[in-house]
């Protein structure tokens, strides 16, 4: 019986692959084990474009098959903020890439351009043939005082890219005098305007042109006039004003699920919800914000039954919070950021009835998050009411600014009378060492599952 031997360089057939398997002339060494390399160039290019830039560039080292793909793959051009500060270096860098890259562009991100007077340079980039089919645009300007031509050029470039854009983030511009042409944005799903001056006419024109828009973030904007929002497709809206009227009218948004209001509690304001039948998440609100449902303010005779998650900024003023909760009978999750500049001016917790006409406490409220909780007498009194009266509560979470040990937590549990809690299923979670708790409300991120509770999900 002959002994089998593995093929060696001497006994392989000429042109044979490892293991004695015949190989056709011209085939690469990895043609039998590398299935991915056999895919068409277009698919491989898409795969590369989805990788981070460094990892995408490294695919050139895989084999000869991959070397040309990196240069022809859809371009993800993201400029580091440090490079944005030097306009001449930035101009040379971007112009070279845009002129030499033969493939299409997928993303162009330049988050902090120090523009000066070189608006023509930026306009040239945005009109580059390489960006013709751009899907994601993120460009923000750092003032001082760009010329008015810049704003018009950027708006014109935005309209030119309308047919392919899916995501658009624009910052540091004045669109208050822009008139939106009859352009269609058939694929635009996410629109962010950050530190932008805009008018009701501009916003109306943009929303009318967007046929698939789901997320709208107006972040620290300057408002000329009042803003009214109507859209058949919007599901999430974030709104924050730097200057101008703090008045937002949700006129007709039948699919709206979330209305997030970063920094809205500062200085008050007005929110009018004329038609938002699916609204489930709202806030943060403060006592200075007037909320209207239809033409009437929310009240015991004008309840909001659809809202299931509500965020408030308040002092430990139990009567104020309870008056608000009475208007949300189906509330399941409540988030309260305690502000320390107001005193607790309410009657003692023991003087309230078991539910005190707050329907959600007896039927729906399952989760309570209290941020900026310091464990002083006012904080304890505020939280204890919910411990003793929320019948179906599952969790109470405390965001604590200071680092505290287990003994401090044990003392707090005793002060809260958790042994007498109304819901025996309620669990208590303390997260300590958060010196700026309010910034953990990531209400500017519309993609988060729960932007009010990301503090405890990290």
Q: Could you list some keywords that capture this structure?
A:
single chain; 458 residues; alpha/beta; 15-stranded parallel sheet; five-stranded mixed sheet; 14 helices; 24% strand; disordered N terminus
Can you describe this structure?
With 458 residues, the protein is an alpha/beta fold. The protein has 14 helices and 20 strands. The chain has helices spanning 41-49, 53-58, 64-67, 69-72, 81-84, 87-100, 119-126, 148-160, 200-209, 318-325, 359-363, 377-389, 406-415, 454-457, and strands at 75-78, 105-114, 136-142, 167-171, 190-194, 197-199, 215-224, 227-230, 236-243, 247-252, 258-260, 269-273, 281-285, 289-293, 296-297, 309-314, 333-338, 367-371, 395-399, 427-431. The strands form two sheets. The protein has a 15-stranded parallel β-sheet that branches. A five-stranded mixed β-sheet has the order 8-10-12-14-15. Mean pLDDT is 80; it is low at 1-32 and 343-351.
The largest β sheet comes out as: 15 strands, parallel
Tally of individual helices: 14
Structural class of the secondary elements?
A: alpha/beta
What's the Cα radius of gyration? Answer: 29 Å
Which ranges are low-confidence, i.e. pLDDT below 50, for 5 or more consecutive residues?
A: 1-32, 343-351
Q: Mean pLDDT, rounded to whole units?
A: 80
Percent helix range: 10-25%
Strand portion, in percent? 15-25%
User: In angstroms, what separates the terminal alpha carbons?
Assistant: 66 Å
Query: What spatial form do the alpha-carbon principal axes imply?
Result: globular
Number of strands: 20
């Amino acid at each position: 019986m002959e002994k089998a031997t593995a093929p060696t360089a001497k006994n392989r057939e000429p042109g044979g692959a490892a293991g004695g398997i015949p190989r056709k002339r011209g085939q690469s060494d990895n043609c039998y084990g590398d299935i991915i390399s056999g895919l068409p160039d277009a698919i491989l290019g898409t795969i590369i474009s989805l990788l981070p830039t460094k990892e995408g560039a490294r695919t050139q080292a895989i084999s000869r098959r991959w070397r040309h793909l990196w240069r022809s793959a859809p371009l993800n051009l993201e400029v580091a903020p440090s490079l944005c500060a030097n306009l001449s270096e930035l101009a040379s860098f971007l112009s070279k890439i845009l002129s030499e890259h033969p493939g299409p562009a997928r993303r162009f991100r330049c988050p902090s351009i120090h523009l000066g007077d070189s608006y023509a340079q930026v306009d040239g980039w945005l009109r580059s043939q390489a960006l013709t089919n751009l899907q994601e645009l993120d460009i923000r300007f750092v003032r001082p005082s760009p010329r008015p031509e810049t704003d018009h050029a950027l708006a014109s470039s935005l309209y030119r890219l309308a047919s392919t854009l899916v995501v658009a983030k624009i910052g540091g511009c004045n669109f208050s005098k822009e008139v939106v042409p009859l352009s269609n944005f058939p694929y635009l799903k996410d629109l962010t305007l950050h530190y932008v001056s805009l008018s009701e006419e501009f916003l109306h024109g943009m929303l009318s042109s967007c046929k698939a828009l789901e997320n709208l973030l107006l972040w620290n904007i300057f408002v000329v006039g009042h803003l009214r929002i109507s859209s058949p497709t919007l599901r999430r809206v974030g709104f924050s004003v730097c200057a101008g009227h703090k008045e937002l009218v949700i006129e007709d948004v039948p699919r709206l699920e979330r209305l997030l209001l970063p920094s809205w509690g500062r200085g008050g304001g007005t929110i009018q919800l004329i038609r938002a039948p699916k609204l489930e998440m709202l806030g943060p609100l403060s006592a200075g914000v007037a909320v209207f449902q239809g033409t009437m303010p929310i009240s015991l005779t004008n309840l909001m039954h659809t809202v299931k998650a509500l965020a408030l900024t308040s002092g430990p003023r139990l009567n104020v919070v309870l008056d608000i909760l009475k208007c949300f009978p189906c509330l399941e999750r409540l988030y309260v950021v305690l502000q320390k500049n107001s005193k607790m001016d309410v009657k003692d917790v023991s003087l309230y009835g078991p539910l005190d006409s707050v329907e959600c406490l007896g039927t729906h409220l399952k989760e309570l998050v209290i941020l900026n909780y310091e464990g002083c007498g006012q904080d304890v009194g505020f939280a204890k009411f919910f411990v003793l009266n929320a019948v179906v509560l599952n969790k109470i979470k405390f965001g604590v600014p200071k680092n505290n040990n287990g003994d401090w937590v044990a003392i707090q549990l005793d002060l809260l009378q958790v042994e007498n809690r109304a819901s025996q299923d309620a669990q208590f979670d303390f997260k300590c060492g958060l010196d700026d708790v309010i910034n953990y409300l990531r209400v500017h991120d519309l993609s988060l599952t729960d932007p009010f509770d990301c503090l405890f999900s990290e």
